[in-house]
Amino acid sequence: xxxxGIIGIEKEVELSGKVYNKSVKILEGYFRxxxxxAKPLSMNASLCFEQSYxxxxxxxxxxxxxxxxxxxxxxxxxxxxIAVTGSVNQKGEIQxxxxxxxxxxxxxxxxxxxxxxxxxxxxxxxxxxxxxxLRKDLVKKVEEKLFHIYPVKTIDEGIEILxxxxxxxxxxxxxxxxxxxxxxxxxxxxxxxxxxxxxxSNGKKESKNK
Length: 210
Fold this sequence. Notes:
7 strands; single chain; two-stranded parallel sheet
């Protein structure tokens, strides 16, 4: 709980470029627009590329970072056999990226070494489908359903693939259906707000007898 929003650790230690730093701010815009229309966005979240020791830039991982935060808030695990690439805007719409063929083939080669299970694949922006020029061996495994390519248009579509749960859409009263990802995230954010109320302005736990 807290009010710092989303913190990019790479930015804090000056290991990221301007495009990446902008993408982190876009993530905050997404969460405010999606979950903070009738309440403040009261959370602290930090993002880091673990064991990355050089500089990074670009926004191709921004959709992935949202999925990670949604997983953490909803407490729903993400499938680890599916790689993700895709930029995102503040409305949660997936945007195209560069190098899509190399990214798909690179992950496919890793999966081949580890052993194809039929559950592995990649999530890509739907706009990049027209750019696909993949190797014949990869295409064959897709046809055999041993490897999958999932084009998506929105964050909601992607999170459903990664969790096998419905994302959920708001009803007329602004509520998400129960047992959906967005419901679980929204409920957790409500819990964080309530938790903050039990602390004073200095961050100390207030006495219940006060």
